[in-house]
Amino acid sequence: MEIPALVGTGLIVIGAGYGLGKIGSSAMEAIARQPEASGNIQTAMIIIAALLEGLSFAALIL
After folding, report:
1. 56, 12 in Cβ contact below 8 A?
2. Handedness of CA 56, 53, 17, 37 (dihedral sign)
3. Where does the pLDDT of residue 40 fall: very low under 50, low under 70, confident under 90, or very high at 90 and above?
């Protein structure tokens, strides 16, 4: 692999990790504020996390 490809791969992994962490922390804050909506928040969090992971895998493959 070339150096720019390795740097790009590293940035993708770092960005995906940051995004997943941000999603998790925001969801936990939302559940703490409105515990009765935890089911809806968790569902949305899982969907967004799956889309983010799929996007990062697709970018790594390309």
Report:
1. yes
2. positive
3. very high
Place 18 in a pLDDT band, splitting at 50, 70 and 90: very high
DSSP letter for each residue of the chain: --HHHHHHHHHHHHHHHHHHHHHHHHHHHHHHH-GGGHHHHHHHHHHHHHHHHHHHHHHHH-
Distance, in Å, from the CA atom of 9 to the CA atom of 60, rounded to the nearest integer, reads 6
Residue boundaries of the structural domains of the chain: 19-61
Residues shown for the chain? 62
